[in-house]
Each structure stands twice: as C-alpha cells, then as structure tokens.
Amino acid sequence: MGPKMSVVMLSVTNIERRDPVSGVVLLHPTSLDLRAGEHAVLMGPSGTGKSVLMRSLALLDAIDGGDLRFLGEPVAANDVPHYRCHVAYIAQRPSLFAGTVEDNLRLPFTLYQHRQRHFDPDAVVTLLEAAARPASFLGKAARDLSGGEAQLLNLLRVLQLEPSILLLDEPTSALDEAATAMVESLVSRWAGRKPAETATLWVTHDAAQAWRVGNRFFRMEGGQLEELTEPPAGSTATVREAAP
Amino acid sequence: MNATYLELSWPSLAVAAALILINGAISIALRLGLERKLAIAALRTIVQLLLIGYILKWIFQVDRWYVVLAILALMTLIAGRAAAGRGAVRYHGMGLDAMLSVSASSWLITALGLFAVIHIDPWYRPQYAIPILGMILGNTLTGVSLGLERITDELSARRAQVETLLSLGASRWEAFRPSAQQAIRAGMMPVINAMTVVGLVSLPGMMTGQVLAGQAPEQAIRYQIVIMFLIAAASGLGTVSAVLLVYRRIFSRAHCFLYWRLEERKAGS
C-alpha cells in the first residue's frame, strides 16, 4: 500500500468508456486514486481494457462518464494540453519525428505549453549518462535507432519536461533485457528525485517487472479493474521484498 | 489582325470525330479491350457538348437572372460532389465539407472577378458569369479534392505522431498543423504549376478560344491573367477551408484526436 499521508495526485471516480462507433463498453465504471510516491502496476490479459484506461487517464480519448481530478481539480477542456504535460503517456511503440535525436528532444519546446522553457543540453547529457549513452547519441538520426534506443529517446523526451505522473503503457514489452533495465532505471531515478510529487502507473505482462517497478498492484479483466491484495505470482517474486 | 472567323460545318466535325477510329484500332490491335469504353466516351463527348451548346444558346436568348443563377447553382453542385473525391480514407460529412469549401470559395472569388475586375453589366451577364465560374469551379474542385485526400491520408497514417504531440502537451491545432501544411501544399500545387508554365508550355483554352474568335491577343492575354489569379485565389481558399473543416470534425474541443471518425474505404468500392 502507498504511503497514507501523501497527497492524492490523480483521482478518477466511475469513469467509463464505450466504443464511439459501436457503443460497446470498453471500460466499466472504474475508480482509482493515485497518490504521490505510488507506483501502481496494471496487469491482465491483452485486449481487456488496460490501454483504454491508460488513454482515458491521459485524456487522449474522451471519457463517457465519471469524474477525473488532478490534484483535486477537474480538468477543463481548455486545460487538457497543460494536464497532459503533467500526466504524460508513454506508448508501447515510440513515435519519433524526422531528424536527429536532438531534434526530437527539442520538439516539445516548440509547443505553446512549453514556451517558457528551453531545451537544456546539460540536463539531457546527465540523463544520457544515466542511460549509459554518450553525448554523441544526440546527433544520431532518429530513424537509425534500435527499438530500445527509440524507447529511450521517447522516455527522455518526456522526462526532460518534468512531468508529475507517468502513464507507461507496456513501454518495454518489445525490448530486450538490457534496454528494459535502462528504461526501468531512468523511471526510478526520475521518481526518486521527487518522491512526494511523482507517481507512476505501469502496464506490464511481466510479473517480475511488476515486482521491480511497483508498490501497488491491479488486475484488469473484461474492462473491470480490481486491486490485488498481494503482488502477482512470478518466477522472481523473491528478488525483493514488497515495497513500503 | 485578321478577324475572319472560320465556321465549322457538320461534315468537317465528322472528319475530326472519325479520328476516334485511330484509338479504336489501337485498342483492337493491342487487345486492350477498350472499344466499348472508347465508344461510350466519344458519344458522351458529343452528346454532353451538344447539350451544353443548346442550353447556353437558350440561356443567352432568355437572358434572365434567375435562369443564369439556376445554371450556376447546378454547376456548383456538380463540382462540389466531384470534390468529395476518391481518397482511400473518408469521414462522415466529407461530402458536405467538400461542397461547402468548393462553393463558398468559388462564388466569392467569381463575384470579385465579375464585379470588381471585369465590371460586367448586367450583373448576371451569362456570357461572362457561366464560363468564368466554370473555370474557377473546375480548378477549385481539383484543389479541394487533393487537399481532402491528403489531409485524411496524413491524419490516418500519422496517428501515432499526432497522439505523441498531444501527449507532449501540444494543443489540437499544434498536433494538426504538420498534416495541414502537407495537405494545403498538395492542394495548391496544381495551380502553382499551371501558373509557372502558362504561355510557355500550355496556351490556356480560354485564351486560345478568344484568339481563334478574332480577339486581339493582347486583350485575350489580359483576360487570361485575370483568370489565372482568380483560379489561384479560389483554389487556395477552397483548399484551406476544406482542411479547416476537417480539423473541426477530427479534433474535439478537449484536444482529443477523433481518429475513429476516419474510415478506410475498402479497395475497389
């Protein structure tokens, strides 16, 4: 369980979603509070609504009912871009833009939401060091990156903007062990810097990864969310004790 | 300037029409199987042009504003329908958006041309209003249909990029802009190309017609210049409005990308 005294960052009450074309229910009324310092893991079979929930939380798809609050406040239509800067969605397959790694990292600063900020080369080089990448990585063409490097870039592009919540939708399911470890360490490093102001929700199929990155565990099946009282069974469940 | 105008007789028309036999011979020799299509196309050319010839003759004779307006409206409807295009990706309301952008931009620019540049009198004078609106409609529909095809294509192909931009905090407009730029560029390209080679490679039909009819080339050229700019303005305006109408339909006020509104049309349908 998460620390009881910490602030509720993201709170949804009975949010639901239907397919806009067919009207089929994709997400049954779902409620969830995510507090600072919590690292929730969401597991469950494919196609049961995990991505639907993640996309709804990112407000990428409009919810068809229920209430969503960020730091206690509902999000008005006009404030959605600002909200998305705080609650950042990381997709399974990273989408990069033409140009170099640095071009991709600079891209967010061309947006109105980030007009007050500037690309900070030093901060990025520090992040790159943490990911064991030399500064020359910045000059690499985005299309020449491996799958792991692409996801790394995708993550760095978000982390440099200092979001509050990361919604990670199977970010490592297509990556090898080394790249997976790198992604996990970048996320935990980011969260560790400001534990009282950050939280994550991480979708994974890998029970061992759930143990490594989570301190709260959920299961989604048939569009219904259920909190698990104990961590999912997994081969390496003894690697580390349950998180605080 | 020699102003003798050579009238075409029916027999000489038949000589020209017989040239379709060349195409027929090619089709038979190479077994293209196009004979039927060629025959129908040839017949349509003759029938449609004869028909419009009689209609124009009648309209010029009657010379009533409501008759002229009716034919202009009919031309606009046909152009608007054609502009909805044959793109692979469609959305509900695409036909209406095409119609709106073709008609509004063509009528606005035609009115500007007829009243502020050419100063026709009376205001509905069919010898001017009909061919000029026709030329503008024809080119605007090309721009609108290219623009619509490109924007729907771009948005469905770039769904991941659009959503990545939104996730990074882009407004719906910022997420839409890269696709819009491509589409508007595509829609304006034919007009820019035409303006680039006009007079060098192509002698536009209207100018040729005026010269054949004995008009001084200098006046014919002035008309052509006016027409080129009217066409450029109308097709630019039409393309931009079509793209903006797509924006209104495919992005919600809450900055969501309503990608599910874009439907891939099955091949061959």
Describe the protein in words:
Chain A has a single domain, classed as P-loop containing nucleotide triphosphate hydrolases (Rossmann fold), CATH 3.40.50. In chain A, strand 1 (8-18) and strand 2 form a beta hairpin. Chain A contains seven helices and ten strands. The longest helix of chain A has 17 residues, at 177-193. Chain A is globular and about 45 Å long. In chain A, helix 5 (147-159) runs parallel beside helix 6 (177-193). By secondary structure, chain A is of the alpha/beta class. With 269 residues, chain B is mostly helical. Chain B folds into two domains: 8-62; 64-264, no CATH class. Chain B contains ten helices and two strands; from the N terminus they run H-H-H-H-E-H-H-H-H-H-H-E. Chain B has helices at 10-18, 20-29, 35-62, 65-83, 94-117, 126-157, 159-167, 172-197, 205-212, 217-250, and strands at 89-90, 263-264. In chain B, helix 6 packs across helix 8. Chain B starts with 9 loop residues before the first helix and ends in a 5-residue tail after the last strand. Classes of the chains: A alpha/beta (244), B mainly alpha (269). At the A-B interface, helix 2 and strand 6 of A face helix 7 of B.
Keywords:
heterodimer, A: 244 residues, alpha/beta, Rossmann fold, 6-stranded mixed sheet, 4-stranded antiparallel sheet, 23% strand, B: mainly alpha, 2 domains, two-stranded antiparallel sheet, globular
| Helix/strand structural class of chain B | mainly alpha
Strand content of chain A: 15-25%
CATH top-level class of chain A = Alpha Beta
Gyration radius of chain A, rounded: 18 Å
The parts of chain B where pLDDT drops under 50 for at least 5 residues are none
Uncertain parts of chain A? 235-244
